[in-house]
Amino acid sequence: MLTKLLSRCTCAECQQCCIFDSYDIWNTPVLVPEIRNKIRQILPEMEFISTGTESYLFKIHTEAESFSCPLLSTEQGCLLGEEKPFDCQIFPLRMMHLDSSIVIAVSPLCDAVMQHSMKTLLNFLKQELAETLFAYAEQHPDVIHVYDPFYPVLLWKPQKF
Ligand code: SF4
Prior knowledge:
This protein is of the alpha+beta class. The protein has helices spanning 8-14, 33-42, 86-90, 111-114, 118-139; strands at 19-21, 48-50, 56-58, 66-68, 72-73, 77-78, 93-98, 101-106, 145-146, 153-158.
């Protein structure tokens, strides 16, 4: 979704967004039932935690300070290929709740995207992606994360109740 901002090569060489701190499990991708079912075909032993009416997170068993996503292969990259979870498709963007709005925020951890000016990111979103992201988030509210003040907000939309 973000190839105009972030080349596939850059992502393939980096993979930082597939590695998580152990205190940061909320940042692992939200898995809707279809994605969870695909993962079960690839990793039959994988366990999940239910986090909403129709969403899951990986159940991670580790004592380490950080861990890689169970789907990250050093040779092949993401084992889901083009069918990644929504969170991964839009990273470093994140859908978040802020007050009574849904916001599109950006993770400052992605050096490649943060090289663009905020104006460029905003124009890209307005012209290419914002409507799609807001529509998906409204249909799948479990992908909306709690706001983290570490993430600059690019766009917001009042939430429908
Ligand atoms: S699902 Fe794929 S893209 Fe997403 S964190 Fe895991 S390995 Fe990375």
